[in-house]
Amino acid sequence: MWEIDLIVVVAASFLLAGLVKGLVGLGLPTVALALLATQLDLKEAIPLVLVPSIATNIWQAMSGGALKALVKRLWPLLVPACAAIWFGAGLLASLDALLLSGLFGLLVCLYATVSITGLQVPAPGRKEAWLSPLIGLVNGTVTGLTGSFIFPSVLYLQALGLARDHLVQAMGITFLVSTTAMAVALSGHALLPAEAGLLSAVALVPALAGMALGQLIRKRLPEARFRKLFFLALAALGAYLAAAAFVTPQL
C-alpha cells in the first residue's frame, strides 16, 4: 500500500480531483475514484476517498444557514440510504472486481451525459413523502456498490426547488452522511484495512491543495465552458473503464 508508485498515483488523482471540486464545486470522490480505478481494483480505491470526502463535505454541510431545516426535510432520504449502503457494500465484497469497475464506468458515463444535456427531473411535489425513501434506497445501493454518491441523489436534490446555497448545503449533508455510512459499511464487510485508512488521510493533503488551486483558477476561467469540458472528459473516462471491463476481455 505504501509503494512509491501507488503514492504518486493517489497524490496525482486527489490533486486533480480537488482541482475539479475547487473549480466547479463538486466531483471530488467521483473524479478521484474514476482516476484511481484505471490503476487499482475498485475495492482498493473506494476506501481511499473516505477521509478527503468526509473532510471536504463537513464544511459544505455546515455552510448555508439551513442545517436544521434541511436535515428535517432530508432524513426520509438519508436513513434508507444508510441502510442500503450496507447492503450495497455487501455486494461490493462479493462481486468480481472487473464487473464492479465496468458498472462504475457506466455510472460515470450516465452522470456525465445527464450533466452535459442539462436534464432536469420534475419537482416531486406531493410525491416527496414516498419518493425520498425510494431515492434513498436506490442511491444507497449504488453508493455501497460503486463508492459513488452522486446518482440519482444530485438530480433529485436539484428537483426539490431549493435556493442555490441551500442546494449546495443539502448536497454536502447527503454526501457527508453517505460517506460516513460507507466507512461503517466497508469496515463491517472487512473492506477497510488500516493501511488504506492511513493513505486516505494522507490523500487529504493533495485534495485540499487542489481545491485551493481550483478556487484561484475559477476566477479566471469561464465556468460554463470548463464544466462542459470536464463532463466530456469524465464521460470519456467512464467509457474507458466500461470498455476495459466489458469489451476488452472479450477480444
Report what the structure shows:
The protein is mainly alpha-helical and 251 residues long. It is 78% helix and 0% strand. Helix 1 runs parallel beside helix 10. The protein is globular. The two termini are 31 Å apart. The model has no long low-confidence stretch (mean pLDDT 88).
Features:
single chain; mainly alpha; globular; 251 residues
Note the topology.
Elements: H1 4-24, H2 28-36, H3 42-45, H4 50-62, H5 67-94, H6 97-117, H7 128-146, H8 153-159, H9 164-188, H10 194-218, H11 223-246
The ordered string of helix (H) and strand (E) elements is HHHHHHHHHHH
How many β-strand runs? 0
User: Cα-atom Rg, whole angstroms?
Assistant: 17 Å
* Overall helicity: over 70%
- Poorly predicted tracts of residues: none
Distance between the termini: 31 Å
Which range does the strand content fall in?
under 5%
The count of helical stretches stands at 11
Principal-axes shape call: globular
Structural class given helices, strands, pairing? Answer: mainly alpha
Quaternary assembly: single chain
Mean pLDDT, as a whole number? 88
Q: What is the compact description of this entry?
A:
This protein has 251 residues and is an all-alpha fold. The chain is built from 11 helices and no strands.
